[in-house]
Every structure is written in C-alpha cells, then in structure tokens.
Amino acid sequence: MMPWPPAPVGQLRVRVGTWLIAAVVLLGADCAKPPNIIFILSDDLGYGDASISPMVNRTHEIPTPNIQRLADEGMRFVRGYSGQLCAPSRCTLMTGLHLGHCTVRGNDGSYAPLLETDRTVGHVLSQAYETGVVGKWGLGDFNTSGYPLQQGFQHYIGQASQMDCHNWYPGIIQNNTVGDYVIETNTNASEATCGQHHSKCTWANDLFNREAIRFIQEHGHLSAEKPFFLFFSTTTPHTGFLAGAKTQWAVPGPYDTRFPQYDSVQSAFAAATSAQDDFVGAVLDELKTMNIDDNTIVFFSGDNGPDDHPFDFFDDPGPFRGIKRSLHEGGIRQTIVARWPGHVAANTTTEHLFTFWDFLPTAAELGGVPVPEGVDGVSAAPVLLGHADDQKQQDYLYWEYCNYNHVDGLLPQLYDPGWIQAVRYDTVDSTTGVRTEWKGIRTDRGPMLLYNLTADVSESVNVTSMFPDFAAKAASFMDDAHVESDHWKSSNATYRCCVSCFMRTGCKSCKKRNGFSQQDESKLQLSPPLRHLSDHYLLGDWHAVNIPESGDHIDIALPPDVNVRLDAARNLATVHSPGHPCHHGGTLQVAAEAGTGALAVTVIPTSPLSSSANVQCSAADHGTVHTDGSRLFIMWESDDIIAADQFGQGKRAWLKPQFDYD
C-alpha cells in the first residue's frame, strides 16, 4: 500500500495558546502536551457481543480480551448512546450534533453528504493535531463536500461510500486524493478466486488495521511536533460481501477457524467479532511498543444495535428491546470505553450519559482547542479525569429516524412505523435524590409512548397515562430538538418521511401520500400498464400501501442488459448489474394474488437460460416468488429507482422502496 503522504492537505494553521493553557490546568501539570486521541468504532457490534457490558446472558460468549483490557484499564460509560444505524451514527459522532440537527439523518452520505458548512472533529482538532481516518466513512463519497479530506482530515484511506463499504474484498478503495486506488489482489474477488481461508485476497479490515498501525507509527513518535487524532472505523462484525461466499460474513483466516463449535452463521459472526477484538489489541500493543501509552486516550464503541443473525444465541441486544434501526434502547444503547493510563482511573464505571455527539466537545477539551458554537454535545472530560462534580449534563438526548418497517429483535417493536422521534432524559427527586430515567417515543408527532427505564429497561409498559406531565415534557423536548432537513424531511399532511436511499442519483422514497416522488412525477402522469426499466434503474423493497384487488398486475419490461434472479426460499428478487449471464431481458410481472391480496413477482425471460463456466443458470432464475402479505422484496445492484403504480384498470398501489442495505 501507498504510505500516508507526509504533507497535510490544505489545512489552516492557527495558534491555540489560551485554550492550551486551560487544558493544561484541567489535565494537570504533568501533561503539558495534549494527548493523542484514537476512536475505534465497530460496525453492528451488539450491546452484548463484547464482554464489557452488564446485564447480558453469557451462556454463549465471544471472547474479547482486548476490548476487555480497554475496560479493565479505563472507564466504562454503561449509559452510552450512539445513533440507530451506520451513517447517522457517524454523522453525530463527527459533528457533535444530535439527529435533529446533523446533516446525515438516514443511511446515505452518497446522496446527502456532509456540507461545506459542517464542522467535524477533523476541523476542530486539525488546528493542533495531525488528523486521519482509516476505514468506513459513509458521510460523503470521493469528490464530494463530505469526503474526509474536505472535512478537516489530513489523511484518509478506506471505503468512503456507504453503498460500497460492505464489499469486504474491494477491488478499489479511496487513498487520500486517489479515488480509485486499486487493490490488485482483489480483482474479480470471489469465494473461488480467493482460495482457502481467502488467503489469496485482501480483507478490507486487515488492510485497514495495517494502515491504522502505520498512521500511529508515523505520527505517534514521542518527538512528533503535534499529537494525532485517528478515527479507526472498521466494518466488523457487520455482514460483508464476497461473491459466492457461503455466509454473510466472509471472514478470512486465521479468524475463520476459531469457533468450530457453533453453526456456520454464529461461527462466522463470532469470527468477525473476534477479528474486531484483534484490531483493538493491535492498537494497544503498538501504543505500548512506541512508549506513548500514557499520552494516548483510546475510545471504543459499537455504532448501533446488532443485525442480521439470531440474537438469542449471544444475547446481542442484552436486556433491551430493539436492534439496529430501532429507537428502542437495543438500537442505540452502547457501553463506551475510554482508556488513558495515568489520567483516566482504571477499572471504573460511570453512569454519566455519554453520547456520540459528546465526543467532539470532549476531544476538543482534551486537545485544548475551542469547541464550535452550536454543538449539541457536552464534554465528558471532567468525569473522565476524576472531576465528576464539575461535569455538566445535557437536558435531554434526542434521535429521529424514518422507517416504515417493523424492527423486531428478541422483543417486538412497540411504536408504529413512520417518522419516529425518541427522547431520553433524567429527573431527580428533590426530596429523596432518587433518579428516574425517562424515555419517550412517538411516530409522526402522534401519541407519546413513555417508559420508566429505571424500573422497565425493556420498555414494556407505557406509563403515559400515569405520568402525563413527563410525557408532555418529552414532547416539548422533541419539538425543541427537531430542525427540518431539506434531504430528510419529516412526515406531514403532504409527504411521508424519507428513508435511506443508497443511490447516487438522489432520494426517491419521499413519496406523496397519494402519489410518488417529485422527481418521478412527470414519469408517472401517464401511468402506462407496461413500464420500461431503463438506464440501470434500481428496484428496492416495495410495500403495497393500498393493496390491489386480486388478479391486478403490472408488467415491467426488462431491457437486454438488466436481469432479475428470483429466490423463492427467501421471497426475494434480485436485479442484477448489466452483463449477468442468466436470462437477458424479459418481463418482470408484479401481481396481486387471488384470495389474499399478497403480491407475487414473476420473471418471464425473452430467451432460454444459458450457463457459462462461472455461472450456472437454472430454473431458480425464473418463475414466481410469493411475498409475505403485501410486501415485495426486491434487492438491487444498480443506481436508480422505478415506481410501479398501475394495477389493472387504473387501480393504484403505492409500492414503496424499503430495503435497507446498510
């Protein structure tokens, strides 16, 4: 790999003397130089997946000795909070803004990247630090305003696009100013070409781990003029793509043989989690080797709740309701760890509410640089450094998210789908000093669900009728926190809210309540019964809001370079990229089934199936897939959306894209 370039990329240098003096007073006279700062972010690590979280059933456990070492040698924030999924979590972590204010509120930094006006941890610390990002970014593609080098960071290597970053064996990554840096070992990577234990290919996370260590080596030596900040963002244990892989976690050796006692899914997931632990250990070992352990603070957290495997085996959500994408506690609750030998007391636990948007002001205070005006977070430096009596608190914590699916974990979702708001706040009885933890959730500004987390951590009992004043207070906080976004609109009388998009051509899921997106309005006026799919149009997970009558259908013509593969076992249809050898062209027919109103999709190829040396076509590549109820699952491998709205004689079904590939 190309080494990190020695020169920073166009960053303004300013003097920070006054703030540096203040930091020295806080940190102590023995620490005149601000610390190096590292934040290691794990992808889809559940609350219970690492050994550091309380209230977890450990019948089956994934050993995480290095993450445990962080906790044993540092402080655990057992009431830590992230965002509810990948890109929004990273946005709030990087900007210090909660989800009512930050730019990226859905899972698509490709569509709506960070703006030139955003101020990230990179901007803030680059005044006095060497700043770098390694790994998953998701807040802006190469050549956009959201790319790390445009957001205050001087170095970047990784996968910038939210859409691309879960290709675990990518042929191309981004390397600073090179947007298409080639990984030659991953050209046409597949289960077959990568060989046994995938040893012939390069796992992106192994590459990122090496680059993180390289960054520390180049910028962490004791004689360095400035300290460094490293944001090390892996894609483990999130599912990862490799063509032909037998599981969703194509983990290479040596990790892939560590858990033979589990079935293939749990073994692969455990291997990915174990690899994440190795990466943490590699960072800690390097700091010790370089003798900079005592002058480096390391933070560690997951980015949201768990996803994509049976949750009861490892008790991934712990005692909480919800998983990734949920605004119940299981989607946003984290145990966040901070370790700084000699400064942060070892093996300590705090119940201070520490959120992702607190990280920017915390890093700024530790680094002796000013905090930008308008951030929502509060620095946790006082509690970290043993000055808990001086610690300020946020009035409330706030999240918002658009999701028209139910997100059930071990416990079902209790709020309605739609535009969801959630608030967390504490009250303390003035007489007894007893703290009560309140959680409010509502959909489309409707009735409030209020939970007393102190007595009901699983959010099982709605106590709104018992405590109307506290419910009203939650509603007031929600109204105060939300600022409307041009890209991530909330629901109102005209528009449904905008869900994750995953396309570079824009968000097309902001549907009118009785129509379609503004972008597609001209296409939909005529509503022909036969609609053509062209220019690599993308199909999502469609939901029929107004279920059509039995027998109604729509035919979508497939041009010769667009192909669909059906998977009856999974109720899934996949639109393949141009050039897929199975059934070129044909017709995709979506129909309402007689007697049930459920949807069915049928592919009618224009030519017989053919096979090649690499792809064997079969009857599974055409036929009919029956859906569950009124939902039609269609995966995409392309760059746009088409809306199907004509069923029979002018009857309209709103088929809304909902597949959340994140």
Task: Describe the structure using short key phrases.
disordered N terminus, eleven-stranded mixed sheet, 24 strands, single chain, about 650 residues, alpha/beta
Describe what is shown at a glance.
The chain has 12 helices and 24 strands. It has 662 residues and is of the alpha/beta class.
Q: What does this entry look like structurally?
A:
Strands 1, 2, 3, 4, 5, 6, 7, 8, 9, 10 and 11 form an eleven-stranded mixed β-sheet that branches. Strands 16-18-21-22-23 form a five-stranded mixed β-sheet, with no helix packed on it. Strands 12-13-14-15 form a four-stranded antiparallel β-sheet, covered by helices on one side. The protein has 662 residues and is α/β, with parallel strands linked by helices. Helix 2 packs across helix 7 (264-289) and helix 6 runs parallel beside helix 7 (264-289). The protein is built from twelve helices and 24 strands. The two termini are 27 Å apart. Strand 21 (586-592) and strand 22 form a beta hairpin.
Strands, helices and their partners?
Elements: H1 17-27, E1 36-43, H2 65-72, E2 75-81, H3 86-95, H4 121-125, E3 130-136, E4 155-159, E5 172-175, E6 178-182, H5 191-194, H6 204-219, E7 228-237, H7 264-289, E8 296-302, H8 329-332, E9 333-339, E10 348-350, E11 354-355, H9 359-367, H10 381-384, E12 397-403, E13 418-428, E14 435-443, E15 449-452, H11 468-481, H12 521-524, E16 530-532, E17 542-543, E18 553-558, E19 563-567, E20 572-576, E21 586-592, E22 599-604, E23 623-626, E24 631-636
Parallel strand pairs: 1-7, 1-8, 2-10, 2-11, 3-4, 3-7, 16-18, 20-24
Antiparallel strand pairs: 2-9, 4-5, 5-6, 8-9, 12-13, 13-14, 14-15, 17-24, 18-21, 19-20, 21-22, 22-23
